[in-house]
Design brief:
By secondary structure, this protein is mainly α. The chain contains five helices and no strands. The radius of gyration is 26 Å and the shape is rod-shaped. The N and C termini lie far apart (66 Å).
């Protein structure tokens, strides 16, 4: 499954790349070149970032699942204990 950006996110990313080049590089980058650079980064680096995000989400969910028994645990067979406390 290829990674894609929404058209709005793509335009924002291209504008950000153009600004980065204006402010940090010796020469500005044009819209077409910025679009090509973005496409390269999404295809080349994007999967590594995506996979790290999935791994982070898995780790977070596994930690939550490990705590599930603590959060929703109910003691069993407490009827007689409660009755003897009332007497």
């Amino acid at each position: 499954m290829p990674l894609t950006l929404s058209p709005e996110a793509q335009q924002q990313a291209i504008a950000s790349i153009e600004r980065y080049f204006r402010e940090h590089m010796d020469e500005p980058i044009g819209n077409v070149a910025a679009s090509g650079l973005l496409k390269f980064l999404v295809e080349e680096v994007g999967p590594a970032l995506y996979n790290q995000g999935v791994a982070d989400a898995q780790e977070n969910l596994q930690a939550r699942v490990a705590e599930l028994d603590i959060e929703v645990h109910h003691e069993a067979f407490t009827y007689w204990n409660q009755r003897s406390r009332r007497k």
